[in-house]
Specification:
70% helix, globular, 5 helices, mainly alpha, 0% strand
Amino acid sequence: METKKLYDYFLDTLSHCGTFILDSNKEDIEYQIFEEFDIGIISFLHENSLKQLLDSKFITFDVYNKCLLLRKQVLELQELDLWKIDLIKTNEKWRDVILLCDEIKDMILKN
């Protein structure tokens, strides 16, 4: 995939998760997290995709590492059966994912 297009998908993935989601209704959360964010985490935050972005200088090494951590935490939510809409606003592990998304987006804006 062309790196610029990959970067656009990468940014789009991150845009679907963050503290804004805590003020969203169930339908919006379901769409943002369980459709858009979920697909992007699997594809556009995959280690190979992130490596391509890093090698092409679209992201920094710090962003690369934070994104690997984010993907790991999201996959852990799924493995621990915490991938449920009712837990997004209350579960500590979900809170960590949400805050990490905001942190990554802030890092990207500052570069």
